Amino acid sequence: MKTLRPLSISLRLALLFATVAMLAFALMGGYLYQSLAVKMAHHDDAELLVRVNLLRHFLADVHGTEELERSSLPFLNGIFDVEGCILQLRTLDGKLLLQTAVPSAALPAIAPVAASRTTSLSDIRDWMPAAGTGRMLSAIAVLGDTAHTPVRITIAREHSERTVMLKRYSWELTLVVCIAGLLVTLLGFLIVRRGMQPLHAVIGKANDISTHRLNTRLAVDQVPAELQELGKAFNAMLARLEEGVQRLSGFAADLAHDMRTPISTLRVQTEVALAHTRSKEEYQHLLASNLEEYERLAQMIENTLFLARADNAQLAVQRQVLDATAELERIRDYFEGLAEEAGVFLTITPGNVCIDADPILFQRAVGNLVSNAIQHTPPGGAIRLAASDTALGPQIAVENSGPGIAPEHMAHIFDRYYRANPARSTGTASAGLGLAIVRAIMELHGGDVSAFSVPNLTTLVRLQFVR
Amino acid sequence: MHILIVEDEPKLGAYLRKGLLESGFITDLAITGEEGLHMALEGSYELILLDVMLPKADGWTVLRKLREQSEVPVLMLTARDEVSDRVKGLELGADDYLVKPFAFVELVARMKTLLRRGPVRTAEVIRVADLEMNVLRRRVTRAEQRIDLTAREFALLQLLVSRHGEVLSRSLIASQVWDMNFDSDTNVVDVAIRRLRSKVDDPFELKLIHTVRGMGYVAEDRG
């Protein structure tokens, strides 16, 4: 299924903005409409009261039913002939004296206000004409004759006029709200787009970056505050990429360079051997010698790959709790014969220390250090392995007597392919990588490695693990 | 022992056949994945050496289809050794995994392990020529003469004679005798062998421990 592309931020913001604006307009329109409707209703009700009161006064001056029927009714019929207004006058026994207009639906019978009481707003009732709503009021008036003949007044209003007006008003309001909403959306979109300009500048900058120009950086102080964090993160990512690419090309160069030695050996010895017919023993010797060079190449690739993966944290570290002293004993056991042949004493200063580490990587790190130490300790010297607990965490120390490391080499001994003495260690496969591997292993464990040396006396390498 | 090799690199394939023939295996060679799968399903092989990068169908595909019908042991050969690749191979049902470039002796050792069905029975007394090793009593004699060995020397000699005739690489020896599982470039194993020889071989006419240059060591009677 094809997934929809997410909306652009500009459009998203403009739509949100428009929604909020529409909501506000609609609320405002609703309020205006309501308050107008209430005011109009109130106005109509007040008018009903006034009319009933006027009628009561008018009827009080009519002397008897006769006069009423003769002169007053035509007059009243004339002045109440208003659109939407119905006036009924009845005697108390229900005889219709006057009806100015026929109501669109029958008027309900409601209790009239007694003659002794003044009418008020609360006496007004609703009724249901054929269309819309209506209001009505009923009251008793007395004529001005001596008998005080009572007459029942009913005035009703059909609100159709008002309804039509309100309807038109609501249409106008809706239209205005819609137009305003569209206008706000459009303007919002334009404004947001303008506001997004700095983002496009960042994109332009990002487009300029290629592997050859990884040193390009965004000018963080020239972008708006919101984009500064993004700019910083972006720059940090560039820095990491640059470092990674440099490291990678460094790796490739180092590896290629280091492979030249064994390959030229292989090539020369094979060419020389093939130039003339040789004895069987010579061929066997050649093949065996080639095999040793192949072994070196394979080791070199293996070590380089190990470092590359450690750099990318692609190695799975399978941690176990190790008894440091027992592990050191095993390593001493392994190297003891070699040390004896070299005339070097291998001792352990035990400590009750537990280390959370990958056992094979631990062996490899300490093994590399011990094998290095045996190579650099003169006969009669000593190598001391120690495990101790420090404030930072468990620590393994490998110390050997001997010429030590010259200060100018000290900063580089853990670098890949670094050799203090280029001519010396060409015989071994991991030459130049052993200490780099130690450092990589320590970094995989979150710890680090450090070295100290007193020339012509001692060299100390410390593996600091974390708790 | 009938072995199928599925390997598209002609030189490597040819030399694998030659080497395995000399080690006592009968081999067939397939050079594409399709051909390999067909042969594996039609023939009856005791072990299959399967390269991962193959034309037509790669090693993973061959392995998956093969496992639908057959339980024959499969040893994968590959130049890629990312952890995820190993896991993939083992999940699909490979029995072992060997990364190129590998040592031939290592390949033979792994093949023998895969072919050795069931638990390995350690012999109580091992004899090679006039050397007699009593594993239970931890006694070693040559020509009736008692030889005193340290614990490590005993373990080393036991490894060599229990697999006599088989070339053992240095890393295998370091792993089996000292449980050191990293490839180091030190000559610890050579020193240990030298010391062992001084006790086991030097006083006698017949030498039993031989160096195979570039590969490792083998114990055998070449007299």
Task: Describe this structure as you would to a colleague.
The complex is a heterodimer of chains A (467) and B (223). Chain A has 467 residues and is α+β, with helices and mostly antiparallel strands. Chain A has 10 helices and 12 strands. In chain A, strands 2-1-5-4-3 form a 5-stranded antiparallel β-sheet, with helices on one face. Chain A has a 5-stranded mixed β-sheet with strand order 7-9-10-12-11, covered by helices on one side. In chain A, a hairpin with a 4-residue loop joins strand 9 (382-389) and strand 10 (394-401). The longest helix of chain A has 52 residues, at 9-60. The model of chain A is unreliable at 423-430 (pLDDT under 50). Chain B is of the alpha/beta class and 223 residues long. Chain B has a 5-stranded parallel β-sheet, with helices on both faces. In chain B, helix 2 packs parallel to helix 3 and helix 6 (151-162) packs across helix 7 (170-178). In chain B, 31% of the residues are buried. The mean pLDDT of chain B is 87. The interface between A and B is medium-sized, with 36 and 24 residues.
Task: Summarize this structure briefly.
Chain A contains 10 helices and 12 strands. Chain A has 467 residues and is α+β, with helices and mostly antiparallel strands.
Attribute tags:
heterodimer; A: alpha+beta; five-stranded antiparallel β-sheet; 53% helix; rod-shaped; B: 223 residues; alpha/beta; four-stranded antiparallel β-sheet; 8 helices
Secondary structure layout:
The complex is a heterodimer of chains A (467) and B (223).
Chain A: H1 9-60, H2 64-79, E1 85-91, E2 96-99, E3 125-127, E4 134-142, E5 150-158, H3 160-195, H4 197-207, H5 225-275, H6 280-311, E6 320-323, H7 324-341, E7 345-349, E8 354-357, H8 359-376, E9 382-389, E10 394-401, H9 407-410, H10 434-444, E11 448-454, E12 458-464
Parallel strand pairs in A: 7-9
Antiparallel strand pairs in A: 1-2, 1-5, 3-4, 4-5, 6-8, 9-10, 10-12, 11-12
Helix pairs in contact in A: 1-3, 5-6, 6-10, 7-8, 8-10
Chain B: E1 2-6, H1 10-22, E2 26-30, H2 33-42, E3 47-51, H3 59-69, E4 74-78, H4 83-91, E5 96-99, H5 104-115, E6 125-128, E7 131-134, E8 139-142, E9 145-147, H6 151-162, H7 170-178, H8 188-200, E10 209-212, E11 216-219
Parallel strand pairs in B: 1-2, 1-3, 3-4, 4-5
Antiparallel strand pairs in B: 6-7, 7-8, 8-9, 10-11
Helix pairs in contact in B: 2-3, 6-7
